[in-house]
């Protein structure tokens, strides 16, 4: 497909009948070619219809949720003026198409529209960066007007708070400047890969600007145009038909039938009800030594780190359930896992670095036995079962792609849980926990200027807000509400820094973070589903904390 053809398709020029144009909101047939513009339309004009995943994310945005936030703790050997950071943000916005988009309703479906006027939501604050981070995580967007992003720079004496750099021995000693750059982008226009690409672009721009020596690379960010909904292009009409029976089962089972009894193991796990919840971020990571040992051990056993940690999480969840069941009653359980998958692996050549929301969901139900965690042999056997199943799903079956038709209708579950939350009623759920695995980040985010420079990232924190705003019956905006009760989102961190133990902590504040690793290493996060509400299961008080230890029996300290 030529550049002109792709630009036309991007703008929604679809060869359909008049009735189809009304339903799908096709643009007029005469359009200008792309011509190297990141958004090939005039301000205020329509760009293209949203894809399946983008539409679901945008609906979450209308409920005040699904905001992604990345914080970079930065140090520099020379002073970095605030105006330099602002100029870098402006340049990034002008060369990144997704940062010029908002969402509007056109005909019968949502469309991306270019914002009417350029606005750079940049602010400078002082104080605790983690408090600023939390506020940014909960700030909603005006989805119809945009922009769907914002950047905050935190400076002052407390900027290194929460960075964990003391664990690595780098406390910013000798640095002439330190700051925390918080980049917030709504999930309908971004994913984890795009988040980190934007962060690296900012580092490159700032280094090119403040360096006292001329750098070989011009001070420009990578040109990142808006791409078509590539994931939807991978679907054939038959895929929609094949997904229909599963969709009916999914909606009927979650919203009407008794699937929740199965999900909560006949009442052993408490089905949550709440009208208030906030996202609470907790950081956990592994030391460099433990990370290397874990990666090496998984390779020797023929599994990925992902499969190893998911196996451990399943066994840990079974143990939590056993503690609250009658003695000797619960020896096996079926747990549902949802994996967030980067769909760029399926895209045509030339789109491997496409900016935007290019993720899919892969889910499965696995029976976990008490014996799976009793010995090293049974544990690795269980890990191999999960590994083989996931490889088939990602490979020949391409389940993350085939599940695309389910995403738009599943907005009904979001709507239902939002209504239930307003009334503090028990919520419906899809899975016990979710995972996000971005693998090795060294190529995607080296954390230093690719052409050199004094500015580098010494710590990185990424979170996704999954709690939803509650609106009272009088139409007044209330406190933050976790549409499906409280979503507990913890991560297993693999990083080259000193650490505490290899487990997430559960608190009354219901953690909800997708905490990414430092610039150099890999991470895997485990996200117990919000409807699971493990803090309620453990019946903790606001001052209590409980640890969910996923260390195998044979590796526990006496």
Walk me through the structure.
InterPro entries: Alcohol_O-acetyltransferase, CAT-like_dom_sf. It comes from Scylla paramamosain. This is Condensation domain-containing protein. Residues 469-491 are annotated as: Disordered. It is a single chain. This protein is an alpha+beta fold and 558 residues long. Among the domains are: 1-36, no CATH class; 235-438 and 470-555, Chloramphenicol Acetyltransferase (2-Layer Sandwich). Helices cover 31% and strands 20% of the residues. The protein has 16 helices and 17 strands. It has helices spanning 3-10, 18-24, 52-62, 82-95, 129-138, 165-168, 192-210, 230-233, 237-255, 259-263, 288-301, 305-323, 376-394, 399-402, 411-422, 534-537; strands at residues 46-49, 67-76, 101-106, 109-114, 122-126, 149-155, 177-186, 332-342, 359-369, 433-440, 456-464, 468-471, 477-481, 490-492, 505-507, 522-528, 545-547. The strands form 5 sheets. Strands 5-6-7-2-11 form a 5-stranded mixed beta sheet, sandwiched between helices. It has a 5-stranded mixed beta sheet with strand order 9-8-10-16-14. A 3-stranded antiparallel beta sheet has the order 1-4-3, with no helix packed on it. A hairpin with a 5-residue loop joins strand 12 (468-471) and strand 13. Helix 4 (82-95) crosses helix 7. The longest helix has 19 residues, at 192-210. It is globular and about 65 Å long. Mean pLDDT is 77; it is low at 1-36, 167-171 and 470-554.
